[in-house]
Amino acid sequence: MKKILTIFAAAAIATAAYAQKIENSVPVAVFVPESVDNVPESSRILLETKLNALTSKCGMGTAELTQFYLTCYANVIDKQVIPGASNKFVNEVELTVAVVDALGKRTFDACGLNLKGAGNSDQKAFNAAFRNLKITDQKLTRFMAQTNDKIISYYESNADRIVSEAQLLAKSRNYEEAFFRLSLVPDVCKCYTEKILPVALDLWQEYLDFTAHQNLMKAKAEWASGLNRDAAFNAVEYLAEIPADSKYYEEALKLMEEIKTRVGEEIEYERAIEARDADRAFELDITAVDAWCQVGKAFGENQQPTTYREAYLR
Fold this sequence. Notes:
This protein is an alpha+beta fold. Helix content is 59%, strand content 14%. Strands 1-2-3-4 form a 4-stranded mixed sheet.
């Protein structure tokens, strides 16, 4: 009897653990396409809400673009119509909850659940079935916990490849995409601190110098086009974007002195430079570690994320 109670106690503890927030959770976005076989639109919205609640409960919820997405699709196992004063529809559905690797173009992991629902119409029967999806279901929460571990293992195993691909992109001056690839690695991974972040910060300095050089060349061209007040105003628009931690900053200062001497009057560029330096100092103090990450995320959000996700769910 004591042994049986011990087994039940262990099972209860395990169930409670799965019902709690996952430690070291990785972000997994939810995406349920507008067109899902065997799922009416009203049911699709219900499923999307349920999956968002699931990722939120597990500590994995995010609205940002991620490499891994939680989605679902349904397969009708059985349909029945029970005749009566008003027909009653009964649907049995196998719902597959899947984590998709958008970059790898594959289903990363999946979990199948049988759901049953009844209603006065086929759609109401579907809705009733999907309402029976419980985000506290032990099979489902265990699946999320195991998937979380698998995603971390994936990044740990592929960190060197991710770094190499990012460095190759940077050599082609595709810095934004390089940062995007690096930003997909969650900071809960050991490799993030040991491999991803050092490379990202090195590439960030390269990116600053590269963009600073571009702005300097544009400023020189604008100034040389007129050597007057209008040309000075246009040139300073580019000079103001060159940060103090760029290797081209001193050269930018020399050009600003030349412009000031030639024009012989105070123009708006001094205030623009002061404002830019103040902003840059704030960036260095507050966001030096993740500024590159924000650039990467911005790149990702501009890549038509719906297409990015849907292409690998078909």
